[in-house]
Design goal:
Blueprint (H helix, E strand, L loop, with lengths): L7 E7 L2 E6 L1 H12 L7 H28 L3 E8 L2 E7 L4 H32 L3 H21 L7 H14 L1 H26 L2 H28 L22 E2 L6 E2 L1 H4 L13 E2 L6 E2 L15
Parallel strand pairs: 2-3
Antiparallel strand pairs: 1-2, 3-4, 5-6, 7-8
């Protein structure tokens, strides 16, 4: 997903979150607006409809980002592109934190359903203008469609990631990701078939996006499964996720680029004697000083 930032520019910053827009958004917006010209008497309504879609997607992504921050995670970037938006969220590696960070996005769409329905009803009572009623109807059902589509249990859609978070409680971090990715591959195959049947370029592009993310998720799941089998140091634990570090030369010196076991050497490279003020957790990726890693139970002095 990091590749989505390429070709994007910053629109605004709100609550410490930078919102970027990909250049291709304007191309697709122009095509969509021209395609739907017959729906309204003026092209202005087509522009407003597309801007409403932009607002719904942006609000959805802010739901992800703010929920992630609420559980102690990092979220400072949103990228909007033709197929939707991506909130770069990094919640703590706990199933509950992940579940809330992902579910908050669709919950925004759920909250918008009665709001948009009320606006449509009020518009129909206050005005007989066909364009206004068509616009409110389109915005309401666009939100419903985005909600329904996003909740499909296909990784990396929100529904697939919510499923992964629920499975995490029982299967663990690695196996839950593996199961979700496999279901994502199956969903992608079904989407390819549907795209071919409907001759839909958009569904084909979306299927390619899902394939790319499922492949990345598969590689990550394999790494997590291998790490789960490693021997660990119970006398240390990550202050963020509580995982004990593995025994072995899994850290690389930033100076001489040689691997070493930072917990065996006290965060000092045995090859070039470089010292490091912080050590990265291989499970959650957070950085902490070597002293902060000491287990509070095992680190107590013996009487």
């Amino acid at each position: 997903m990091n590749g989505l930032r390429q070709g994007s520019f910053r629109l605004f910053r709100l609550a410490g979150i930078n919102v970027y827009l990909h250049w291709s958004w304007f191309v697709i917006a122009l095509l969509e607006i021209n395609t739907r010209q017959r729906a309204y008497s003026s092209p202005l309504w087509n522009v407003l409809e597309y801007l409403a879609l932009f607002a719904i997607v942006t609000t959805h992504e802010f739901g992800h980002a703010l929920a992630c921050r609420q559980v102690g995670g990092n979220a400072n970037q949103i990228v909007l592109w033709p197929l939707g938006g991506v909130a770069y969220v990094d919640p703590p590696p706990r199933p509950g934190a992940m579940l809330w960070s992902i579910a908050a996005g669709p919950l925004v769409n759920v909250a918008l359903v009665p709001v948009l329905s009320t606006l449509q009803a009020m518009g129909g009572q206050l005005s007989s203008a066909t364009d206004l009623n068509q616009f409110l109807w389109a915005v309401k059902w666009t939100n419903v469609f985005l909600l329904a589509f996003n909740m499909l249990p296909i990784y990396p859609l929100d529904g697939g990631q919510i499923l992964r978070s629920l499975l995490w409680f029982g299967l663990g971090r690695a196996r839950s990701l593996m199961v979700s990715v496999i279901l994502g591959f199956l969903g992608m195959a079904g989407m390819v078939g549907l795209a071919a049947w409907l001759h839909s370029v958009w569904l084909g592009v979306l299927a390619a996006f899902i394939l790319l993310n499922c492949w990345t998720g598969l590689q990550h799941a394999r790494v997590l499964l291998r790490m789960a089998k490693l021997s660990r140091r119970p006398e240390f634990s990550c202050p963020t996720c509580g995982a004990s570090p593995p025994i072995g030369a899994y850290w690389v010196c930033g100076g001489c680029r040689k691997p070493f076991d930072t917990f065996q050497t006290g965060a000092t490279c045995p090859h070039c004697r470089a010292q490091f003020s912080s050590t990265r957790c291989l499970d959650c990726g957070r950085l902490h000083s070597i002293d902060a890693w000491a287990s509070p139970v095992l680190a107590q002095p013996t009487l």
